[in-house]
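Title: Request for sanity check on Amidase prediction

Description:
We are preparing a figure and want to confirm that the structure record we downloaded matches what your pipeline produces today. Could someone re-run it with the sequence below and paste the raw structure tokens into this thread? We only need the token string, no images.
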Amino acid sequence: MFKEYGQYDAMGLSMLVQAGELTSSELLEAAIARVNAVNPRLNALIHRFDNRAFQHIKDGLADGPFTGVPFVLKDLLAAFAGEPLTMGSRGMTAVPDYDSELVRRYKASGVNIFAKTNTPEFGLIITTEPKVHGVSHNPHKLGYSTGGSSGGSAAAVAAGIVPMAHGGDGGGSIRFPASWCGVFGLKPSRGRNPLGPDQGEDWQGAVAEHVLTRSVRDSAAMLDCSSGHDIGAPYNIGLPSGSFLAATERDPKSLRIALSRKPLLNTALHPDVEAALNKTAKQLQDLGHEVIEVEPDIDITHFWRDFFVVVCAEVGAMVDNYRTLYGRACVDKFEPATKNMAMIGRSLSAADLVCAKKGWHDVQLAMGKLLERHDVMLCPTVPTPAVPHGQLPNSKVEELLMLASHRLNIGKLLMRSGLVEQMASPVLEKMAFTIMGNISGLPCMSVPLHSSADGLPVGMQFTGRMNDEETLFSLAAQLERDLGFSALASL
């Protein structure tokens, strides 16, 4: 058994295979051994197909930068032919007969896909505690949230099951769990990675897919493999000047960095997070960067509402579509919060959606103006370290209220009453820094630089200009080399 498996990133493992020092089968065996050792405590992986992965090796894996590296898919959006796609829901039993375009590109990179990871229902909450598969535990502290919605993937990387895992981000769902589990997570620019063939965009362009990784170079190299225009996609964004991997191999120029410490929702910074932010600013200055405190000109009184309106409209359409495709029995099994969001979405008008999208443009404009004067913006990824399970999902009483009201057309009334904001605030407050990246479409990354007083990871978020992942990768690699990342979990 390859006992040093957990000491390597994905590129390092692939180099061992290419050099003939290890076989792809030995890497898969090491990954399976790690799964068997830690997953019963973590519940990060919820579906495995080990034998099929061994068959992939016999059939011949693609020759790429990650040939032979064990890899897992988040059980949401990423269709993998012949394997179930539950999307964290009790109602879904879909088994696609095709690969999504992103999965096709992952395969071309050489990875060996052998499992699916846990996710909340339809990725609608930022903690991984779905009713169908149960909670995923943070490898740094069992009983604590991994974050979400890519919580299973983040836990799998942090626990050494795989060095790199697929994730998706509609409101912070790569960066949020990256911060709480202490791994690197980048949300690329809108349109950088494909969402086809099923969609050209998701959540009005808010959703972006990529990977969570142990090292910066793995994230960059995989984006080199996966990015590019997809047939039917509404965006065809600018290409990098070189490769993303090459950007990690050079230090950035001296950057002008805007430091933002004001959450975009009505919440406060945890003292440990604020201390980490101040420490990061000092470290950046020591590396030769200029750090200036400045806040984007964003009206926080409308910020959460504009995001929530768009997401509820999307959920309403999604639920109607699944009712048509799979029948009422499928939809009846959805969780109360999903049904309630769908009800709110159906009760809103097309004009409400257009007004919310106008609010999105105001955010895009404010960030564009800020990034005209600064190269990147620094802020915390999440206002607090990880919290215990049970704090973020709705209470049983709230779920009963949702079940009682989800068939009524009272969404606007609930929004005006303040009840929606009150019930959603525990989740939305934690997203006070990440939502901006999804509304604006800008590339953002969570970098695992610090820990709280009780040893929980604390990530710092950096936002770059549109289409400028190169600067982010270059900066992240400099921080990784010069400061080091917070330690992975030791289970």
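Thanks, this matches our download. Residues 382 and 430 are 6 Å apart (CA to CA).
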